[in-house]
Design a protein that fits this description.
mainly alpha; 8 helices; Globin-like; binds protoporphyrin IX containing FE; single chain
């Protein structure tokens, strides 16, 4: 049988990612090294540890699935990021700046190519913006600023 459009798209997407040096092993390294930085950070570490507690192994697996779904279209992530962050009332906008800074710093150290670095940074920035809109957008403030 012919391959579906979705299947062909997934294969092409994955081939391009592989060309950038992105594969399952790199996604795993990315997640491990990033959360090592997060946990060592005096601002973000305590927030993550406070929520995740003993659940780090499960969180790491989930994050590998998440980035694998984004970068390689593995289809293995089935979570819902928005509600997971909406409940984090202790998180402020500047925490996202720090998160993105550590994410970029990590890629600077481990990215296999400039394309891989740009690929992950661009996606992280878009998702961060969308999470921040959900968490902090205040229509009343928006009206006042006009
Ligand atoms: C300061 C910024 C951030 C903080 C403090 C933060 C914190 C957390 C915490 C504590 C959890 C675990 C929630 C739980 O298990 O109940 C979580 C889950 C998650 N985070 Fe973040 N996060 C931040 C930014 C981001 C960004 C920018 C992304 C994506 C690029 C992201 C992606 C995810 C995903 C995919 C999950 C799993 C959601 C699920 O399916 O349960 N986070 N985050």
């Amino acid at each position: 049988m012919d391959k579906s459009f979705a299947e062909v798209h997934r294969e092409n997407y994955r081939r391009q990612a592989n060309g950038y040096g992105i594969d399952e092993a790199f996604v795993s390294l990315l997640v491990e090294s990033f959360y090592t930085k997060i946990r060592a950070d005096s601002d973000l570490g305590p927030i993550f540890d406070g929520v995740i507690g003993e659940g780090w192994p499960a969180h790491m697996n989930k994050m590998k699935q998440f980035w694998g779904a984004i970068a390689l279209k593995t289809g293995e992530y089935h979570g819902r990021p928005m509600p997971a962050h909406m409940k984090l009332k202790q998180v402020e906008r500047w925490h996202f700046d720090r998160w993105l800074e550590l994410f970029a710093q990590n890629l600077e150290e481990i990215a296999p190519s400039p394309e891989a670095k740009n690929f992950f940074n661009a996606r992280a920035q878009n998702i961060a913006r969308s999470l921040m809109t959900g968490m902090f957008y205040d229509p009343a403030q928006d009206l006042l600023e006009r």
